[in-house]
Design brief:
Layout (H helix, E strand, L loop, with lengths): L15 H9 L5 H8 L3 E5 L4 E3 L8 E6 L2 E6 L5 E7 L4 E2 L3 H4 L6 E4 L3 E6 L1 H10 L1 H21 L5 E3 L5 H12 L5 E3 L5 H10 L8 E3 L5 E3 L3 H7 L11 E7 L3 H12 L4 E4 L26 H14 L3 E3 L4 E5 L7 E5 L4 E9 L3 E3 L7 H4 L4 E2 L4 H4 L6 E5 L3 H10 L5 E5 L11 H9 L3 E4 L2 E9 L2 E9 L5 E4 L4 E3 L3 E3 L33 E3 L11 H21 L1
Parallel strand pairs: 9-10, 13-14, 13-18, 14-15, 18-29, 20-27, 21-22, 21-27, 22-23
Antiparallel strand pairs: 1-8, 2-7, 3-6, 3-8, 4-5, 4-7, 9-11, 11-12, 16-17, 17-18, 19-28, 24-25, 25-26
Helix pairs in contact: 4-5, 9-10, 9-15, 13-14
């Protein structure tokens, strides 16, 4: 997960490796420990006693007062690797400490240990109350999660043939949610081949997911892997939130950060992962405050962590099937496709838009096997030194084309119109024109797809002026042709749309409440929104003030 906090900005910074290690493993002073002690309690452990194990929930943060604690990682294949030994003044924890999600490592007392123990809620209170100390702790937690992702600590092992769409799907899901994993092909990895020989998977079992406890999942869904790794659980049927936010893109995450930081109880629901369409952007270069640009995943990952810092609960994946608007009790009910029900006094519709699909035969057949709607490292690995096609002329398409050009031998960028000037920012147009690996093909459209059970193999396109059709061996086609509002789940609630299907809000441009009291809409799904990351984040902040007013009035 590309969450890297800003460097302190010292005039003479230490070498990055030394500096990062000091930030990752800070040693608290006596004064720091006294400040932490106000939020936790002491506990002693005997030599050899396990403080917590991979998969344990609700661990929170520990501060070693005396003794030594060994941190190790292990996986479902039986590998055990030491990570670090913590002595007096050391912190034990990482990002999951904020939410109480399952631990990714084991912690054992190498000698008699005394430690301060903070539950997740206590840790969040400390971070908010002690700003300077909280910043140092947050930085350490973030950097540790980044390191765990790099080493695949505590995550599942995905095993399947290299072109298996299920493995690609699960890898993308885990990556977008900041969870570590290893991805192995039994044709090229001896260890994976040995596991496959032992498990004898059928053709319908791919991919295999081997969990750290040895459990084997065969062809799991995103929800299966999420439950197995502790991402989601069964909601408390007696819990009523102040705000339920549907969608974890920039708008939804911004509203979660502001609502939770102002004391509201918040649940965020998303069908796939945080970030939305913005999270798939290879680089956003015109967002205020980032002169060198930032990837969409890095930007939204910061918001994801920030929302958890203030206590927002996040359930991913959670595909909302229907919204049951409030009756006499004033409570809205969100029904999830797996049977879960979440209850809330107000609802924020931030579900964004769904990728638009061209009218092409066999399109669905090749989705996940050569047809892609985003460009991340997971997809880029299949394009190395190949010729690919990208369809679309907006900023997202431009960012993807530039990113893919760093991996593919050639990117054919096709648009139906005369060029890019009417749909794309100038800086991207110039960058595309200057890249020898990108060929802009205006007045051109894809007309046919061919392939086999392996995936996409050939693509045909036609020039709209001459009518000439060309066919070439293309195995990867990227589609960035816009999106339609993701509002099908609103069918049972009387939320009024505009003529294009986007959610209508108040007559005043600043009013974000829909036709249903207590139900608000923000971001790309809202009629009249500017369809920009900055605008979505602004609406996420604005809607919280209106929610406060609604809750006060009701």
């Amino acid at each position: 997960m590309a969450v890297t906090p800003d460097d302190p900005g010292d005039a003479t910074p230490a070498p990055v490796s030394v500096q990062r290690r000091e930030q990752m493993f800070p040693i608290l002073s006596a004064d720091d420990i006294a400040r932490v002690a106000r939020f936790g309690g002491r506990r002693a452990f005997q030599a050899g006693e396990r403080l917590f194990a991979t998969g344990d929930r609700g661990v929170g943060l520990m501060v070693v007062l005396s003794g030594r604690v060994s941190i190790v990682q292990h996986d479902g294949a039986g590998h055990v690797s030491p990570i670090v030994d913590h002595g007096a003044g050391s912190l034990i924890g990482e990002i999951s400490s904020l939410s109480g999600r399952p631990a990714l490592v084991d912690a054992d007392a190498a000698e008699p240990v005394e430690a301060l123990i903070l539950k997740p809620a206590d840790l969040r209170a400390l971070i908010v109350a002690e700003a300077d100390l909280g910043e140092r702790i947050m930085r350490a937690l973030i950097l540790r999660r980044t390191s765990l992702i790099d080493t695949a600590a505590g995550g599942p092992i995905l095993i399947a043939p290299g072109d298996d769409p299920g493995r690609i799907r699960l890898a993308g899901f885990l990556r977008r949610n900041g969870l570590p994993f290893r991805s192995l092909d039994p044709a090229s990895d001896d260890e994976a081949a040995d596991i496959v020989a032992h498990l004898h998977p059928a053709a319908t079992d791919w991919p295999l997911a081997i969990l750290p406890d040895g459990q084997v999942l065969r062809n799991p869904t995103d929800t299966d892997i999420a439950r197995a790794t502790g991402m989601i659980g069964t909601p408390d049927c007696g819990c009523v939130y102040d705000v339920a936010i549907v969608g974890a893109g920039p708008a939804g995450l911004a509203s979660a950060v502001y609502a939770a930081s102002e004391g509201l109880s918040v649940i965020v629901l998303d069908a796939r992962g945080f970030g939305g369409q913005a999270g798939a952007s290879a680089r956003i270069e015109n967002y205020f405050g980032f002169p060198t640009g930032i990837t969409g995943l890095a930007l939204t990952a910061r918001g994801f962590v920030q929302a958890q810092k203030f206590g927002a609960e996040i359930a991913i994946p959670a595909q909302v099937k229907t919204l049951e608007c409030s009756d006499a009790d004033g409570i809205h009910r969100l029904h999830i496709d797996d049977g879960r029900i979440y209850r809330s006094r107000s609802v924020v519709i931030a579900s964004g838009a769904r990728y638009r699909q061209p009218n092409l035969d066999r399109l669905a057949e090749f989705e996940g096997r050569g047809i892609w709607y985003w460009a991340s490292p997971v997809e880029a690995q299949f394009c190395s030194q190949q010729e690919v096609i990208l369809v679309g002329g907006g900023n997202s398409a431009g960012q993807a084309a530039v990113y893919l050009a760093g991996h593919a031998a050639k990117v054919r960028m096709m648009v139906r119109g005369d060029g890019l000037a009417a749909t794309m920012s100038r800086y991207l147009i110039d960058r595309i024109a200057a890249n020898p690996r990108i060929e802009l093909m205006s007045r051109t459209e894809v007309v046919a797809l061919e392939g086999s059970a392996v995936g996409l193999e050939r693509v045909s396109w036609r020039n709209r002026d001459s009518g000439e059709t060309t066919e070439a061996p293309i195995r990867n086609l990227f589609l960035f042709i816009g999106a339609d509002p993701a509002t099908e789940w609103l069918g049972e609630c009387a939320v009024l749309p505009d003529e294009k299907g986007f959610v209508a809000t108040g007559q005043n441009v600043l009013t974000l409440q829909t036709s249903v009291p207590g139900v608000f809409a923000i971001g790309d799904v809202r009629a009249g929104s500017v369809k920009r990351v900055g605008g979505a984040i602004g609406e996420g902040a604005t809607v919280v003030a209106q929610i406060h007013q609604y809750l006060a009035d009701n």
